[in-house]
Queue: 2 jobs
Job 1
Amino acid sequence: MGGGLRGAAAKKELGAFYTPDSTASSLAGWAIRTGTESVLEPSVGGGALLKAALIQAREIKPFGGLRQPLACDIDPIALETLRNELGKTVEFCLGDFLELDPRKFRKFDVVFANPPFTRNHSIDVYRRKELRERFGIEGPAGIWTYFLAHAMDFLVQGGRIASIVPGSALFTRYGDAFLRRMCRSFLAVNVYQLAERPIWSGGTEERGGILLAEGYFDGVCSKYVKGVWPPSSKQNYESSRELQAYRDLSSAAASWRSRVDQYRRRHRMQFCVPVIGGGACSV
Ligand SMILES: C[S@@+](CC[C@H](N)C(=O)[O-])C[C@H]1O[C@@H](n2cnc3c(N)ncnc32)[C@H](O)[C@@H]1O
């Protein structure tokens, strides 16, 4: 963990309560699957999530690594501390994530986030109005909704988001509206209550939850699924019907492709492309 914030007031203002390592590592287990993903951390703080992602990637690919992750934060001290620790393996970006223009950045496979714990009423009135209009979000939404709505614009097709969210995401109207909105862009959206209240570095009482969304622009899902994190080994990660159907279809397509390849190899089949005035064949 670590990080460079000064006092409790500064922490509260920045919504800076860092993720405990155990939660970070269980989330990294879901987010990092190949070890070579490109990762965006929009509010990196002390780097708990980013470090967990780097560790998970190294476990999967000891000689590979994440494709230079991008880590942003508005807190210059936290960012400088982390830069000294992680060096050039990570690209750092100092500033307000909500003001980053996604067109000026590459796209990412994974957004791995714990946005600031800033509630609706603590967002400056003018900023709140501007954010609501920009992202088309209604109700007393905390800043996490704007962070995640903006983060989606940085994802590749098929990308995923693993994020800590406030516990209120699970039981408020605005949380429900936001999760249903995510269902229109992802194949699966799951939201979890944390089985135990984490001990956030910085000392907030926030209960916290986990939001996992995958298959960005691969399709939509009819509803989001609720559960408890970490899922028990029996329960595992419950997929939406749409995600399961998509996985079945992808694995059917992959097995079909491999059978065609085998058939081609076995019969040294030639595929002919008819060309006007002659014929061209390729093996
Ligand atoms: C809840 S902490 C999470 C830090 C880290 N992601 C983690 O999981 O431990 C939120 C972080 O958001 C940063 N932050 C607050 N407002 C921000 C903004 N507008 N743009 C980028 N970062 C911001 C804070 O400085 C703080 O480091």
Job 2
Amino acid sequence: MDRNADDSGGGVGGKADVTADAGATEEADVTEAAAGSQRPARLRGGNVFEHTIAELLRAIRLGQYLVGDKLPPERELAARINVSRATLRQALSELQTAGVVSVRRGRYGGTFVTRLPAADREAGIDLGELDDAVRFRLILDTAAARVVAARELSAEERETLTAAEQGCWMPLGSSAEDIEQFRALDARFHLTIAELTGIPSLAEAAATTRDRINALLDQIPFIHTNVEHSCMQHARIVEAIFDHDAEAAATLAAQHAEGTEQLLRGFLDGK
Ligand SMILES: [Zn+2]
């Protein structure tokens, strides 16, 4: 990988530019495709600013934009969230203060994701919520896998799914901080499948539910062995999808979701 495409003539000056590596561009393309579905239009009430912040945080938590990624241009992002550019700018400035994004100037500049925002912990642990979220996730993920396995995927769609699956392996063997990226990468993998159903309502429900699951996962210890196991399960789900084996894809997706459910219940039940 040629990450030293230095245009500054060998100088040591542009240190910030080097970090805007080629990988980020590739990732961005993948997420564009994954985020292709249209969200239903939202009401533009009195909480547009809060709504914008919440949408941005959710997209980052769900791996739509990973740590190190450059956010899409302002115009595009504002259109995606369905707010004005002025509101978006205000929200981004707030996230910058919170350390979630940072702005880099210059040729390779832009707004970059710098860290994963913490989930909303104020909600506390509500067992009704846990039960509802894990059971709904099981239904959504199983149905999504079945639908996608029955579809004829384009070369681009197959590539998007493969990239999302491969991406999950990335944090393995890296630092403790990096491994926490797994949660966002994992969310991205599952939401890619939901998007590939071509059913926007399903994709939206999967994103909302996944965000709730992530908030619950944030309350239990991070288990490293579970990462590798999850990655292997992902690979088998993708294989079944590519084989058009809808039953196998659904069964594997259910087993995978049940693993998360067991972990959550094990740690959080009885609290
Ligand atoms: Zn997973």
